[in-house]
Amino acid sequence: MQHKEPLFHIVRRPLLPWYRAALIRLLSIVISLIICGLLTTMLTGLDPVKVYKTIIVGAVGTKRKVWTTLQNTAMLLCASLAVTPAFMMKFWNVGAEGQILMGCLATAACMLKLGNLPPTILYPVMAVTSIAAGAVWAAIPAIFKSRWKTNETLSTLMLNYIATQLVAYYVVLWENPKGSGAVGVINADNHEGWFPSLLGQKYLLNILIVIAVCIFLTIYLRTTKHGYELSVVGESERTARYLGIKVPSVIIRTAALSGALCGLAGLLLVAGTNHTITTTLAGGRGFTAVMVSWMSKFNTAAMLLTSFLLVFLERGAGEIATVFELNTSFSDILTGIILFFIIGSEFFISYRIVPRTKHSSKEAK
Amino acid sequence: MFDLVSFIPRAVMQGVPLLYGCVGEIYTEKSGNLNLGIPGIMYVGAIGGVTGAFLYEEHAAEMNGLLAVLIPLLSCILASLLMGLIYCFLTVTLRANQNVTGLALTTFGVGVGNFFGGSLVKLSNSDVPSIALSTTSKFFKTSLPFADKFGAIGKVFLSYGFLVYLSLAIAFFSAWLLKKTRVGLHLRSVGENPATADAVGINVIKYKYIATCAGSVIAGLGGLYYIMDYANGVWSNNGFGDRGWLAIALVIFTVWNPASAVPASLLFGGLYILNLFLPTGAHMAVKELYKMIPYVVTLAVLVIVSMKKKRENDPPASLGQSYFREDR
User: Fold this and answer.
1) Cα–Cα distance between A247 and A91 in angstroms, integer?
2) pTM to 2 decimals?
């Protein structure tokens, strides 16, 4: 053939053994970290070694920083776990932010209005209402989706902002002291509804709960009938119908589970961490969680690692920003760069680039 | 009494960033790419323009009106083009998942915007307290000199800076391009069925790249308009807010037609500021509920459009899927 032949062509790979796939991912993370370091050097004039040192000091430099990093990892992991069942079903729940906020709102309402109940009743009530609030917030778009195929990416997104405004409304109603524009620390004097410290660590209970969620979800997705059904629906709705799976109820059930876990994250944020409510309490975790979950290929252990990596960098970048009086959004830039590399690395796991050879036209036949 | 003459210009000014974002996303989606990175791209477009204008204001002894507009405009276009290229490279060349890439792009873009917006003064060792590009903004806001002479009509139709009219021109031009030209037909076929388009000799990759990058640039202009015209050149972190997401949602509302994006974004611009015009009574908190209106309406529109199930209302068939020629 006299046609010009491209310099290379792309071939789908057979499934790579896990260690080679892991190696490719690791390599992409290393390259992205190098680029992050170079970028920081360019912007701050600091020598690269010191950049990494500052990042490490910022993330795990003191005992307190270690606990905060672990706590933030737990919260991001919780949100990532929450969105996972929905994604496995190919339900793009980008509304985790709003579902977490609804959980926060329900928790804060319980702490403010029912604070004088005995703790044995108060804690269960807080848990139930926050989980229910998140579940309802996710079930709404799921009902639309199952009934009319309404695009869930956009409907869950809009519900984020509706939740944000709802919280803004209650922040004005509950503001304390009046005119401050913020709710302030709830029950600051008697700590009603606050999670207790375990072994002197105020975040330990949060972390233990998230570990429990992690184990529960791994079992739920891998071994239960529900987990099987939702993965079939995700692969092919037609197959699911053929198997006699009730697709609409699986969609609503799974989305509600996803929202329920987000609501739980809201509970942990208000009762276990911040003891107040603001419109930005979810802090973009709902969006980051989407990427964590997807990049981990729905593997809970990989999610733990990815969350830790991202939080570690976020805290480190925060330290750099503080030291150099730069804007704290610096961490978002670094997060973005790392995400680009991990997303891009998937290509090299699924495909192979074959360069042009002299005999390639023969081989093609 | 509802003050229409002051309401409409403000609705227009709110609607224009939405219009840019929406038209940009229509191009992108017509090529089969669902770009959730538009909010980030709009931030980057804005900060690109701000950076250009800031450096020019710092270094130029005397500001030249033409350069004061051209420099931010070009730096905005360049910055948003780069974002479009990142998205294309990841989703088209490397076939990454579009939703995830888009969200990462938004994280990155908003971060870039806020970081440089908050740190530009420090990074350039300048002695101004914050970014306030009032001189550049004045050039962007220059309206027709005779606008005042027409009273209310002049205020409603003629009182805007040139980027407002540019947005309208782009919207109507895009409607014509997509519907009436060969290029538009090819682009739509790429979005509907890339394999078929490929088979008849249309360069799918090229169309996807060009449409998505053009879409990014248009969306980036929305960010530039917001900062230079609406916000008078004053950068505030997260000031642009969630308009980018509304713009993406508007695409469904307009059923992928850039011409209907004009009234749609006007309507949503109006909804966005309706809270300022509605009575609140004794409770200031109600205002926060009013701010919910655009999102509730968008949600309602999404549901209603999906309930109707008309074929013309369907998204491009290959929307959200990467194309791999050998994968058939």
Assistant:
1) 12
2) 0.88
